[in-house]
Amino acid sequence: MNEQDSTQGIPIPEGAADIIDTDYMIGQDNIEGQVGPFGFDVHNPVFLVSGLTIVAFVFYALALPEQASDVFGWLRPWLTSTFDWFFLGAANIFVVFCLFLIVSPWGSVRLGGKEATPDYSYIGWFAMLFAAGMGIGLMFFGVLEPVYHMAISEPLGVPSPIAEDGTIIPENVEAAKNMGLAATIYHWGLHPWAIYAIVALALALFTFNKGLPLTIRSAFYPVFGEAIWGWVGHVIDILAVFATLFGLATSLGFGAQQANAGLEHVFGIPNNITVQVLLITVITAVALGSVLRGLDGGVKVLSEINMAIAALLLVFVLLAGPTATILADFVSGLGAYATEIAPLSNPFGREDTGYMQGWTAFYWAWWISWSPFVGMFIARVSRGRTVREFIICVLLIPSLVCVLWMAVFGGVAIDQVLNSPTDSAVKAYVIDSYVPELSLFAMLEGLPLATITSVIGIVLVIVFFVTSSDSGSLVIDTITAGGKVDAPLPQRVFWCTFEGAVAIVLLVGGGLGALQAMVISTGLPFTAVLLLMCWAILKGLMTEAR
Amino acid sequence: MFSNIMVPVDLRHLERMSKSLQAAADLARLYSARVCYVGVSSAEPSDLGHRPEEVAARLSGFAKAEAAKHGHQGASHLVINHDPTTELDKALNDAVEEVGADLVVMATHIPNVTDYIWASHGGTLALHSPVSVMLVRG
Questions:
Q1: How does DSSP classify residue A152?
Q2: What sequence ranges are listed for the domain UspA (chain B) (predicted)?
Q3: Chain B positions touching chain A (beta carbons under 8 Å)
């Protein structure tokens, strides 16, 4: 008697041969129930263990702040100086692996099956990639890094154009300027996006093509087999939740301090804990609203708004600054990046350890510790793309946008430092005294309409935090629900609020720095994990229809 | 009076829907109407299936079983949504038009305190849908 069945946008599958045959039922380890009137559906034990461990670490950081600070304050530089070769080498492998996938026959494999169509338009997709991936960093480091690398860190031994007495050394200017941009773009270009692309591709492949749940453990099925449903998988997922929540909470705490510094700089609003707690509360409340409105109605909309405002600010700085010089910087920066990427990525025999260990290895550890969160979010919104399209769009296009951003913001700042070193606010806050949170506002001060653009800058910083916070809450909720993306709404509210609460507790009680150092330290084990993922991706792709 | 009845179903919680399913079947027989069982799912693998096609097949099987059991015309319609947790209301409202329904029969929970925070899906559909909505308490 059945008359007709229909599905919306679902093609007939090419065949189910590529689905991984496992007896594991998604949600089989979940506990469903009610707390009062609120429903929940969480993975046992990932939800409970990760929640309790996070609380335990917060208590540790608060109860023994000096010890926590000593341990993790020591751990992070020790890791980046001892394992610098490992971070740099692994990141190079990720880039080469991604570039190989573009030209390999597996590039034509489509995420979600041969007939799948993309869920999002290019604009919406890029906006979400950026907002989750590195939006906030562009705001913070866009001015700081190019100037710092040009004048202070001396990558590859390229000498600074600024003498000890503050005068300009003309013969050093050109090379240092190019190196400043190249060394910055190196940290924001192909390498970080390759790290995200590996994690995202692995998760998208094993979720949409292989039928495994959307959790980090699924990417390791080819390595561990059915064991991923046991404690091996629990540990991977718990670590991912841990890195994501602490990464977000500590960034939120520091972000509130930065936004507060900006507000003080522009409006004279007092820079104190009360204002910062208020800022975290506002950011968390807006993120909560976004999470409640969902992926399309909240996260995507906010990401698009943010992208539009960021693009406007970029265009303004481009036009208000020395446009011709900036465009020339863009070209020469890109050229310098192409020329210097090989020596900058070389892990051995370097003498510029301040740059290589203090910046590059630190960055790689940072990107890698964020990769479970950003990669999983990218995976979720990338269904329907081919592997080739996916890598090009996640690797090459964001890298180009970063080059443009750094060339514009860094180019203007460098121009201000070199052309008027005595009254450059950028020089005062980056070179003379290190106040990184004010570097963006210092650069904007040298352009017209500084108050308006500074306010836009503060708004952007805040909204970028909201977009990280809401996408992070979605990711944590999915992992702790065993890969279910339709778990009850109160769980998202819980994670979003919990993240804000952890940030406030750490801000008030101290411990932000210690726990952020700990998060970055998770970059080391995750680097090994990502190398395994490359192998898992190859294994997975080999069984896919091309 | 009605020719096409839409019945939103959650295949995970069929035990909570026995009354609404029975009411829909009775109405279908009374008016010789077709019943279209509508499900909303994400594209990600879930406990209902590794791929959307599996979920669609399961929903279709359920529709066939209901049709055979109650003796009415049955159909199924699966909506794939990016975020069913938050977009269920809109997905169901859109589905009314997609399946051409002129009546919705839907299970709904007994009101509780959470309704002051999040309105029930049935209540929201009744508020916004252009067609009649019959809400059946579970």
A1: I
A2: 1-137
A3: 34, 41-47, 50-53, 56, 59-60, 63-64, 67-68, 71-80, 82-87, 98-99, 112-114, 118
Alpha-carbon distance A430 to A411, whole Å? 15
Express each pLDDT in A19-53 by its tens digit.
787 878 888 888 888 887 778 888 889 999 999 99
The residues near A310 (Cβ < 8 Å, ≥ 6 apart) are: A135, A138, A460
Domain locations in chain A as residue ranges: 35-105+130-542
Is-contact A8 B98, C-beta < 8 A?
yes
Going from the C-alpha of A399 to that of each of A183, A395, A460, B16, the distances in angstroms are: 13, 6, 20, 51
Residue position matching structure tokens 């509360």 = A281
- Dist CA A454 CA A444 (whole Å): 7
Q: Rounded distance, CA A224 to CA A296, Å?
A: 34
Q: What is the CATH number of the domain that holds B59?
A: 3.40.50.620
Which residue from A minimizes the CA distance to B50? Answer: A211
Residues of chain B with pLDDT under 50: none
Q: Is A38 helix (H, G, I), strand (E, B) or coil?
A: strand
CATH fold group of domain A35-105+130-542: Amino acid/polyamine transporter I (1.20.1740)
Chain-chain contact of A2 with B83 (C-beta, under 8 angstroms): no
Q: Quote ipTM for the complex.
A: 0.86
A519 near A489, Cβ under 8 Å? Answer: no
When pLDDT is cut at 50, 70 and 90, the band that residue A1 belongs to is very low
Q: How far is CA A406 from the centre of its chain?
A: 16
